[in-house]
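Hi everyone,

Forwarding the result from last night's run.
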Amino acid sequence: MKRSKFSALAFSLAAVLGVAACGGSDSATTDTAAPAETAAPEAAADYSNLKVAVVYIGVPGDAGYTYQHDQGIAELEAELGIAVTRLENIPEGADATATYDKLARDGYNLIFGTSFGYMDPMLETAGKYPDVCFEHATGYKTAPNMGTFFGAAEEARHLSGIAAGAASKSGKLGYVAAFPIPEVVRGINAFTLGARSVNPKATVQVSWTSTWFDPAKEKEAAQSLLQAGADVLGMHQDSTATGEAAMEAGGKWVGYNSDTKAGDFPDTWLTAPIWDWGPYYIKAAKSFAAGTC
């Protein structure tokens, strides 16, 4: 199979900005065009050759990262009229390798993985099943039948940092983060630069949790930052536990991934970078159905 590169996902803050093109004739004419022939309706696309699965590091109930992926998968199902198999709470490492191997052996020919730590397990499996198309979120390793997908999250992180810096009275910001991988570090740097663009003396203290999804650990890390004097918190985690800690302490919170729980934190929630994965999932599936991985 031939691999193609896809464009980055749309990534925005909670406020969605739309750009509309205003069209129209730029010169008047009195010529009358001949009536156009009516085109025959196109045949409906056939997606019966697709057998799609997605592997989640968490659960859609996290109201964050996996929730947003699942919303995108639901868009894919609605658009193509197919059912996608979902596997939840699959650990990184050997468990992921076994999961991808079983999916390939079971006949799935388009497999998505949503966690950075799935990269090597997916790459290993892709080498064994050259006719299966693998798509990995957030990674950087590829193969002829394995692509990657992500977006310029640091741009939205910078904007969210501006909001956090403007809201902070103390100039002390906290950031609850999972693992020090490039994606996360890049986001912290962008958040800090954004905060310092409105408050040059702003500081950002990071608390590492070593987990993508563990609400108890996330909340404990957030509480430690609040106790250290932070009055606004940012995060790179999968749940809303950071927001819960901020709300209880009377602080402010910049979320991540989703705004689905924003209404639960009316006096705490400032904004959030929000993923819209649906367009990519749809594009990838249609491309594979047409013969391109």
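The radius of gyration is 22 Å.

Cheers,
N.
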